[in-house]
Amino acid sequence: MFAVASLEPGEHAFSFKCTPDKYAELVERPGIVPAPYLARANWVAFERDDALPRTETKLLLRVSYDLVFTKLPRKIRAGLG
């Protein structure tokens, strides 16, 4: 799991994993908070989906995917392509 999106309106639009440096930078921005229950693993939560420009958000989501993908066992990574 590298990201979580809410399908219902609520407190957070979506959450994702990031590097420790990026985590520290992002939680200082308005509209972005430490993700409940996952902040210790460097997850952030967007309170609204437009907290950052869409291009930057896409890049951050790609980094999140890569962070999780590299931690998977080799056999699973090979099965995912």
Summarize this structure briefly.
This protein has three helices and four strands; from the N terminus they run E-E-H-E-E-H-H. The chain is α+β, with helices and mostly antiparallel strands.
Explain what this protein looks like in three dimensions:
With 81 residues, the chain is an alpha+beta fold. It has one domain (3-76): Aspartate Aminotransferase, domain 1. The chain is built from three helices and four strands. It has helices at residues 20-26, 54-71, 74-80; strands at 3-5, 14-17, 32-34, 43-46. Strands 1-2-4-3 form a four-stranded antiparallel sheet. Strand 3 (32-34) and strand 4 (43-46) form a beta hairpin. It is globular and about 40 Å long. The mean pLDDT is 94.
Short descriptors:
81 residues; alpha+beta; Aspartate Aminotransferase, domain 1; 4-stranded antiparallel beta sheet; 4 strands; globular
Oligomeric composition of the shown chains = single chain
DSSP strand count: 4
Overall number of domains:
1
Q: The CATH topology is what?
A: Aspartate Aminotransferase, domain 1
Give the secondary structure arrangement, pairings included.
Elements: E1 3-5, E2 14-17, H1 20-26, E3 32-34, E4 43-46, H2 54-71, H3 74-80
